[in-house]
Amino acid sequence: MNPATTRAPWRRALVTGGAGFLGSHLCEQLLASGTEVDCADNLVSGSTRNISHLLGGPGFRFVDTDVCAPEASERLPGPYDLVLHFACPASPADYLRLPLQTLDTGSLGTRAMLGVAERDGARFLLASTSEVYGDPLVHPQREDYWGNVNPVGPRSVYDESKRFAEALVTAHAGTLGTDAGIVRLFNTYGPRMRAHDGRAVPTFVCQALAGEPLTVAGDGSQTRSLCYVDDTVDGILLVAASHSVRPVNIGGTDEVTVRDIARRVVELTGSRSTITFVDRPVDDPQRRRPDTSLARELLGWTPRVPWEEGIKQTIAHFAAAQPVREPAPHP
Prior knowledge:
Layout: E1 12-16, H1 21-32, E2 36-41, E3 60-64, H2 72-75, E4 82-85, H3 92-97, H4 99-120, E5 123-129, H5 156-176, E6 180-185, E7 188-189, H6 200-209, E8 214-217, E9 223-225, E10 227-228, H7 229-242, E11 247-250, E12 255-257, H8 258-269, E13 275-278, H9 293-299, H10 307-320
Helix pairs in contact: 1-7, 4-5, 6-8, 6-10, 8-10
């Protein structure tokens, strides 16, 4: 299934966090496949720049709302066939700046959006994360691995909000019979990422384009499994259409070190930037690679874009972008 060319089974979808990096790509793909989209976002970490090409277009509505607010459900009357709950400060720069809002979105926001799905009889899909595995002691990470997470560390507000949200989705499905699923995303990257959101790829690309040193955490030997945004979106929509209740990993299968990512970015940009090493963040995972056997067997999904090709596309996006100010943080 390629969502861009195959007609989706949904008439109308709600995408929370739809003005964010990944949410905006989901809105775009759903519209391309014939689904009307309500995009809900309070713009704490998202931006209308990401959806400017969709605003005013047929089948698209932007709703400026906080999914945790008591009136959120009333502002999202639907009815919906699909609810994609992708609202959350997902980058380190955001969840470290907004710890309480991050926890609220995983708890209050998830429960509210599950209520919307239950109200309309819609399929619900939670955007979870590889962070639920923490700094894993099992490699690669399968969906039945429980993780190694520090519940009181600086990253815990994000990690535990997603773990709680997964428990909430599971309880909702088991108790009320809600058609609800979970997708665990690994290191998605691509156009529309914010330049200074604390994640490796946009940080390295912007530093290289500016001729600045690339700041690699630790000795750079820690690994990541990058997945280009188009592949991630395809996987998400396949999970949504599958009615699977089990969590499903969606991520790249090529495991590369952070140091090698930085070196390749320098080469692909033609930059004269050097690489410098900085202190490694607390609880930064040493190894990260998903076991995607379930996605392959259940959905026929495998990533198609090699990570270096995706890096080229990401570099082109940042190179073409005019300098813009980051959105001011909400209080």
